[in-house]
Amino acid sequence: MPDFKDEHSHEIFRNKKEVIKEESILSKRLAFTGRIAASIAHEIRNPLGNVSMSVQQLKKAFTEDSPWAKHIEVIIRNTERINFLITELLNSARPPKLNIQPHDINGIFESTLDSIKTKLTSQQIEVHKQYCSGFPVIHVDKEQISRAFSNVMLNALESMPNGGSLTIATEIEGNFFVMRIQDTGEGIPEEDIIRIFDPFFSTKTSGVGLGLSICYGIVVSHGGIIGVESETNKGTIFTISLPAGDPRRRGGMVTGS
Fold first, then answer.
1. Cβ atoms 228, 186 nearer than 8 A
2. What is the pLDDT of residues 112-129, one digit of tens each?
């Protein structure tokens, strides 16, 4: 398992052509998924809305002790679940519109860690921080980037149900802010590495398989790169590299001042 200090293991552009090729393939795949998702979302949501309104009317017609009440609740829960899945699929497949503002990247990590503090404590996860010095300001959409960090961290926690350590490292490498999130969990099988950013791919029985896909879309929409290294039973490292400059100057789906 490579260490954060191992410059050779973590050289971002050690094989630049290969990285660009993989990013291009995955971007095209997600773009295709986005077109499919947009077309089916409308077709599904219209009848789903009718089902939802109808079942709400049925619910009013039966008391809670009616033998039909539990069946109505099942329909309601499942229509809500379908609507959630449609929304998440669209979020993962289309680039989000960004509200780009300058933010302290270390501060974003701190607020993200605070949001999952309960899980960290309950699972007895030790957190180690290796932040770059000062207040590194980066132009990002804070809400979207926080969501990306949270998705990766929660993925890490799921791989450490019996405790472990989570290490967050930030540093400046050339024109990039580089952030690494390392866990000591179960790791990802080699044959699954290439598929972990695919929509609906999950190795968990209860997983939807959209968290990392959404994360990928957020990072790419910021002009960044996300990569992963893992070794079974030793842990995983997610590396997120974001341009130090303002992405609004390079164009893209951004708003804000």
1. no
2. 999 999 999 999 999 999
